[in-house]
Amino acid sequence: MIRGDLARAGEAYEEARRLAESLDDMKGLVGALNDLGSVALGRGAGREAIQLHGRAVSLAQQFGETDLLIAGLASLGAAEYQEGRTEEAGRRYQQALDLLQRAADQRTEAMLRNNLGLIRQATGDVGQAEQLFRQAMALNQAAGHPAAEASNHVNLGILAEERREYEVAEREFERALELDKTAERRAEIAADLLRLGRVAERRGFPDRGLAYSERAYRSYLAQGNQAQAIAAITFALDCARRLGLVAEVARLEKELIRLTGSRSGR
Known about the structure:
By secondary structure, the chain is mainly alpha-helical. The protein has helices at residues 3-22, 26-42, 46-63, 66-82, 86-100, 106-122, 126-143, 146-162, 166-183, 186-202, 206-223, 226-243, 246-260.
């Protein structure tokens, strides 16, 4: 969501919270608190998100709303993870997974396994992280959720890249790109292209790195994401320099100056 969308969503969810409180609607209140927490997390207010989701979890526990409790625990875990509280986040995800053993909700289980994999990755348990990502991917494939499956491939690709298994990483990122295109996730498409460019360059193919990163640049630019567009064109410029493409270097430098208003320091 862009900033304006977040602001409008926050206003709508705050109105929903007040309405739920006026009606003594505990289920509606829990839902509104979780929605407000998601908005807070979206604008980078992790501590506020933790407070909102924590209140939602407490109410869901108090009134025995298992579905809302699972959603609250997952959201609380995401907020804690963003704030660097990986141990607490891992406990929330595991609690939610334990509750899910009694319910047939593949989408939520896949999301929790993927997020728990991120926790394991952050704490250095790479083998367990890979296992969790693959479990999540299998669930998403069975349920037909291409966007969520794409995220699983990205995470597997990042693990492979960290192990310097660049061909494996490239395959994972290529599959993620296919799925993100199917789901029409524009921001993720651009990110996949930039990842593919990075891996291609590390494999010794700066020409492919240049092609991928320039496609990422065009995508980010079309979306109005100037910061990421600058990152992508800077990488493309590095690749062009490695290839000794004088005309391409001059063209990309001109684009970069237009975006940043300053000359490249290379």
